[in-house]
Amino acid sequence: MTSEIDIGSRAGFARDDGVAGPPRSTGRLGDRLFALAAQGSGVLLLAVMVAIGVFLIWKAVPALQANEADFLTEQEWNPNANPPVFGIAQLAFGTVMSSFLALVMATPVAIGIALFISFYAPRRLAAGLGYLVDLLAAVPSIVYGLWGLHYFNTTMDDVGRFLNAYFGWIPLFGGDSVGGRSLLTASVILAIMILPIISSITREVFLQVPGSHVEAALALGATRWEVIKLAVLPFGRSGMISAAMLGLGRALGETIAVAMVLSTASGISIHILADGGNTIAANIANSFAEATETGRGALIASGLVLFVITLIVNMTARLIVARRKEFA
Amino acid sequence: MSVMTGERGEAPTGGGTLPEISFRRRAADKVVQALVYAAFVLAIVPLVSVLWMVIGRGLERLDPTFLTHSMNGLSSGDEGGGANHAIVGTLEQVGLTSAMAVPLGVLTAVYLVEYGRGRRLAKVITFVVDVMTGIPSIVAGLFVLAFWLLALGFDYSGFAGSLALAILMLPTVVRATEEMLLLVPGDLREAAYALGVPRWRTVCFVVLPTALPGIVTGVMLAVARVMGETAPLLLLIFITDAINANPFSGPQGSLPTFIWYQAGDPNPQAVERAWAAALTLILIIMLLNLGARLLSRLRKPVSR
Amino acid sequence: MAKRIEVSGLNAYYGRVRAIEDISMTIEPRSVTAFIGPSGCGKSTFLRTLNRMHEVIPGARVEGKVLLDDEDLYGPGVDPVAVRRVVGMVFQRPNPFPTMSIYDNVAAGLKLNGVRRKSLLDEIVERSLRGANLWDEVKDRLHRPGAGLSGGQQQRLCIARAIAVEPQVLLMDEPCSALDPISTLAIEDLIAELKSRYTIVIVTHNMQQAARVSDRTAFFNIAGTGEPGRLIEIDDTGKIFTNPSQKATEDYITGRFG
Q1: Interface touch B146/A300, C-beta < 8 Å
Q2: Which of A135, A180, A136, A138 is nearest to A162 (CA)?
Q3: In this complex, which chains have at least 3 CB pairs below 8 Å with chain C?
Q4: Which residues, at least 6 apart from C136, have a Cβ–Cβ distance to it below 8 Å?
Q5: Rounded to a whole number, what is the distance in Å from the CA of A174 to chain B's nearest CA?
Q6: Which residues of C touch B21 (CB under 8 A)?
Q7: Between chains, do B200 and A228 touch, taking CB under 8 Å as contact?
Q8: pLDDT above 70 for A12
Q9: Per DSSP, what are the bridge partners of residue C222?
Q10: Do strands A77-78 and C32-36 pair parallel, antiparallel, or not at all (unpaired)?
Q11: What b/e string do you get for C173-184 counting C-beta neighbours within 10 Å, with b at 16 or more?
Q12: Domain at C5-253, CATH class
């Protein structure tokens, strides 16, 4: 007991030193082991992150060496053939296209929801309504996939035919074989899935808007919308950008819902209403079962590309947030 | 001043004290209000549609048979059969996932809050946790495939799936725990030090218990999230129609992969099972969510 | 353009709590009226009822009448936005819009009201900044952020922003409490100049300030914690500070409490 008291006072002394942060543990076995375990966990986490990169590269290289085509420009995905021919071009296009469309659809709606809950909804209901939107995030992607495959694609079939008939002159909505299992349907489902992410981060940003700026706008005789325009949106701009980017990162990596909804067809096409299209993640889920050894390596290579893309998007988003914090 | 009245539509005019707010401004305000309400409705429509379909279609087959039987010996066109093997698999996999991710995540958070503050390593870890949050689940699956199955030569198993799920669950646990630890008032720690309690005991017996309800809430939400993950499991646990209670050996079922295979089957009986499994999955997730919310409401850590 | 304000039977609530009770007074045009009283006596709450800013707080509401030259600000169909357009306000802490330049801060209210022509905006921005005794200090950096100014300059920027839309009344909620003595002096000089054109109401904690700047002074007090604030008396500033008719006022200004 006495020795413990000793440690305690020493720990307290270290604190008074003015050294930032908590006192260092001073030799006691328990303290040392515990600190080691805590630090070890953190380091293990770092190791996992590094290992992800290392092992993906390691297992992708043999397949890439066996590849007869240019991995970056080839549109075909035929790693199981002999000789293997595969490239990321079509998959990357489908991934970026569907995620971009999802982002374009989801961002304005998500900001609208955040505004609704922060400034328009009756105060007493706001929290509950926010929870309702968050429930969208609690629905697993497999369930969105099931819903998309067995219900929503019929709705989108009609939507697609309508758009094709009246707006077919826009290249995006042109083309034949319009159907419900299209890139557009996948994008709409992705948009639904990233809505709660974007709106909840945007809501957090809106919460930080200083009340004094809102009052300044009100006192000038601004309407509610003008208050938002003057005080809320300028303050929240970088936060909203990073929220959208985090949503984009999520959409890029989303696998199952897209894999279930798309009926895959090969070749890059900008006709988003046509059945078909494919994404990196969906392709992995769909073709893994039949993959040979080279096939698996090829899929791992494509996963590596996806990993790098999402890493860049997410890191950029985090950096924007971090920059904003420094300003505030 | 007379120069301005022409241009300024709302300058006080003659008799009335209060100016008119121009039609354009009032209209803009109303239009935005309508748009904002519409945005909210637009988000609720798919939620209601999904839940409506899952509940409506799911209830058709969610019966005792479904919960207590596996698909062993049945072909996809057969009536009956169930998801028992999948439920068992999911519960075991998620249990193993939590057993790995929770201690690791909590300890990491303890390091970040109690030991590492201001240190370079802590900053790096914080950044990596942020980045880890954004790892696509399929990439986590591919990593475990490359590492556990291909490099180390292990076979498909429920545990392999758990490894991937743990990677996805870790950052959520770290974040939630970190937030809760930061809420524990500093004077509580100082009070313990003043009594001569060593640091690790302070953390274990004072700080963590204070933050416990919050941590449990965070963990439950994290469990709910990984429970619905499908993509990594497709690569790692393989497929079986029979009950396999051993997550360390041989293919195992899981609710998400069960839904995946049944939904992709052309037979209507299989699709019915997919909806019932989706309802089962959503019910478990909603229960966890609800429990987490209740817990967080009942016992908030005292913060000052 | 300055207007007379007549308040009668005004009560203000936060949820179920009554913050001020049964206040009636007349505020004269082209003069400065100061509100003084101990903390929590409801003087700021009362000020915020004069431009309907009180009700933006969730659960807050107001009963009674506030007549601005015979028009009831709380009458049916009165748009609070229109009220705030003619009753400007300056806050305790300077709050220029941080993302806007000095110029845009001053022009913000004008743009809301549909003033678009550049030459007219330039003219009003200059006149408002001159009116707020800030023009000479900022004329070379009009397009730099307003947040870069000193506290006193920011507060004068906020005054310029408020007077740019030419309100009838200017409310000031402890406008100098966050400022140093020199900046305070600058604001007080400004108030003396502005009163020839506006009806000014100022809440202050500082009795010397009230004595220096105001023509009339209203003293508010509370009977005890949890009790609503009341108006004790309002009179010419000279009389309040030399010969108040209420004992409580005398106790307060002589420093016997508060």
Answers
A1: yes
A2: A180
A3: A, B
A4: none
A5: 26
A6: 79, 81-82, 85
A7: no
A8: no
A9: C229
A10: unpaired
A11: bbbbebbeeebb
A12: alpha beta
Q: What is the pLDDT of residues A102-130, one digit of tens each?
A: 999 999 999 999 999 999 999 889 989 99
Given an 8 Å threshold on Cβ–Cβ distance, is C89 in contact with A230?
no
Nearest Cα of chain C lies from the Cα of B28 at a distance, in angstroms, of 12
Contacting residues for B235 by C-beta, under 8 A, at least 6 apart? A284, A288, B138, B141, B142, B144, B145, B164
Give dist(CA B225, CA B97) in Å, integer: 12
Residue B150: which residues within 8 A CB-CB, separation 6 or more? A59, A296
What is the domain extent for residue B94? 86-298
A130 to chain B: closest CA residue: B40
B56 in any annotated domain: no
Instruction: Please report, for the domain that includes residue B204, its CATH number.
Output: 1.10.3720.10
Q: B151 and A55: CB-CB below 8 Å?
A: yes
C84, closest residue in chain A (CA to CA): A221
Structural domain count, chain B: 1
**Alpha-carbon gap, residue B171 to B133, rounded angstroms:** 6
* CB A190, CB A102: distance < 8 Å: yes
Within 8 A by CB and 6+ apart from B242, the residues are: B70, B71, B72, B85
What count of other Cβ atoms lies within 10 Å of the Cβ of residue B146?
25
Indicate which of A220, A225, A237, A324 best probes the interface with C, i.e. most C CBs within 10 Å of its own CB. Answer: A220
Got the DSSP string for B246-268?
-TTSB----HHHHHHHHHTSSSH
Does A42 contact B193 at a Cβ distance shorter than 8 Å?
no
Nearest CA to CA, how far is A211 from chain C (Å)?
10
Least CB–CB distance from C97: residue in A216, A218, A219: A216
What is the average pLDDT score of chain B?
Answer: 89
The predicted-structure confidence for B255-293, as pLDDT tens digits, reads as follows: 999 999 999 999 999 999 999 999 999 999 999 988 888
Between CA C52 and CA C74 the distance in angstroms is 8
The tally of CA atoms less than 13 A away on the side-chain side of residue B169 is: 33
